[in-house]
Write a structure and sequence with these properties.
- The protein is an alpha+beta fold.
- 37% of the residues lie in helices and 17% in strands.
- The protein contains 10 helices and 10 strands.
- Helix 5 packs across helix 7 and helix 6 crosses helix 9.
- It is elongated and about 75 Å long.
């Protein structure tokens, strides 16, 4: 909370200087001991800078609403700034890991969760995709914000498309349009999306089916393919850290041997 709010609640300024308190930003105080790298801590610290008519946007809004694989870090494990939608009345200056913006925000792009005002998932995904460093990162944002496979809150590519259509001449909007052409609602993880984009953008291989079952010639299920080329039958797998365990590697080996025998 802001210092003024603590003082109003009965905590004196001298008490706020004690080491049991932390001061993430000028004028903002919270109890010490919180994990400062945790998304919730970072979001709450930044939210204290909002005016009464401001809103959290971008990854912070997506995390707050429960989108999977959304932790406020980019693909290189660098922390992303918290996007704060502000107004002319409450102008905020840029701070470390806080990005204020006064971009046009339509009333239907806002929602409230308890006492926190956030942008809708579609608007938050739009902002993250247009501000992403690369087209691949933008596609990952859209994939994870709309995934029917990953366990988490989701919007749809159609809803994001409607947000795009309602805005003009906004920085990064061209990248969002390109990402919408490449995104899918069937990716299960950022690694899967990144693998697909490598194949599409770097290798020029398109037309992939994502997370579809693969059958042998008599109709038995061989497994779920991360990426399947329906023309050639080529399958690409993006094995993350979960596949490094002995048990998972053994299951993968059995699956691969079975696929070889049945095809």
């Amino acid at each position: 909370m802001r210092v003024a709010d603590w003082v109003t609640s009965g905590v004196s300024p001298s008490q706020l200087r004690h080491r049991v308190w932390r001061h993430p930003f000028h004028g903002v105080v919270s109890m010490a001991g919180a994990d400062e790298a945790h998304p919730q801590t970072r979001i709450q610290d930044a939210a204290a800078l909002l005016g009464h008519d401001g809103a959290l946007g971008g990854w912070a809004a997506r995390w707050w609403q429960g989108v999977a694989y959304c932790d406020g870090y980019d693909g290189n494990e660098r922390p992303l700034p918290v996007l704060l939608h502000t107004s002319e009345r409450f102008r905020r200056r840029r701070r470390l890991l806080v990005e204020p913006t006064r971009c046009v925000l339509h009333p239907d792009e806002l929602t409230e969760l308890g006492d926190v005002r956030v942008t809708t998932l579609a608007r938050a995904a739009y902002d993250d995709a247009r501000l992403a460093r690369t087209l691949t990162d933008a596609v990952i944002v859209l994939d994870m914000s709309t995934s029917r496979v990953a366990r988490g809150a989701r919007t749809t590519l159609g809803q994001i498309g409607r947000v795009v259509a309602s805005h003009r001449k906004t920085r990064g909007i061209r990248q969002v349009r390109q990402a919408l052409e490449l995104a899918t609602e069937h990716s299960a993880s950022p690694l899967e999306s990144r693998t697909r984009m490598f194949a599409v953008l770097r290798l020029g291989l398109t037309g992939w089916l994502v997370n579809v079952p693969v059958f042998d010639r008599i109709g038995r299920v061989l497994g779920i393919a991360d990426l399947l080329d329906p023309e050639t039958g080529l399958v690409l797998e993006s094995d993350g850290g979960a596949h490094l365990t002995a048990e998972r590697r053994a299951r993968d080996g059995v699956r691969d041997q079975g696929s070889a025998r049945r095809t």
